[in-house]
Amino acid sequence: MKRAWIYAAFLLVCLIQLAAPASMIWKQERALAYGQPFRVRTAPVDPYDAFRGKYVALNFREGLPKLPSNFPPSFRGKVYAPVIVGDDGFSRFGEAALAPPQSGPYLTLNVERGYPGQDLRLPFDRYYMEEAKAPAAETAYTKATREKDAYVVVRILDGDWAVENLYVGGKPIIDVLSEAAKTR
């Protein structure tokens, strides 16, 4: 009987450990499949992650969500920033609030330090791709961001997000790399 409880406890621990990554994957896949796409302008950065390999680091030029001036400075937790699409077709984020907006798309953000008026960091700050192609992609991306001609498409659904693609010069980054490889 004691052995059955040990096996049951072990199985429960295994299921709990699988639930966290499964939940993260499910949220990303759900946002990619059903989320509304938004374009957000980017700016250059130089990246490398020893654990996850090469990627293109995303930095954002404008329209970052802010905490309201009357926000408690000691707050730590989730806030909700509405997504606003400008006349130019690019997205910006409204002032963060403690509750999701009644209508329209929004992004759920975690506040680690609540300084009123502070720009909040967007959670999608990396674009992962095949490691061999990442250095060339970073070069093309950095050049394009200097010319203000790079953006990322992020799908957002019920506060969850997934990066769909990185665009340089109006084309997906993988197409830019393919064209560059053909001209060599």
List the helices and strands and how they pair.
Layout: H1 2-34, E1 36-43, E2 55-57, E3 59-60, E4 77-85, E5 91-93, E6 106-111, E7 126-128, H2 134-146, E8 150-157, E9 160-168, E10 171-172, H3 173-182
Antiparallel strand pairs: 1-3, 1-8, 2-7, 4-5, 4-6, 8-9, 9-10
Helix pairs in contact: 2-3
Structural class designation: alpha+beta
Number of domains: 1
Mean pLDDT: 81
Largest sheet: 5 strands, antiparallel
Q: Helix proportion of residues, in percent? A: 25-40%
Summarize this entry quickly:
This protein has 184 residues and is of the alpha+beta class. Helix content is 30%, strand content 29%.
Textual characterization of the structure:
With 184 residues, this protein is α+β, with helices and mostly antiparallel strands. The protein has one domain. Helices cover 30% and strands 29% of the residues. It has three helices and ten strands, in the order αβββββββαβββα. The protein has helices at 2-34, 134-146, 173-182, and strands spanning 36-43, 55-57, 59-60, 77-85, 91-93, 106-111, 126-128, 150-157, 160-168, 171-172. It has a five-stranded antiparallel sheet. Strand 8 and strand 9 form a beta hairpin. Helix 2 packs across helix 3. The longest helix is centred in the first third of the chain and has 33 residues, at 2-34. It is globular and about 70 Å long. It starts with a helix and ends with a helix. The model has no long low-confidence stretch (mean pLDDT 81).
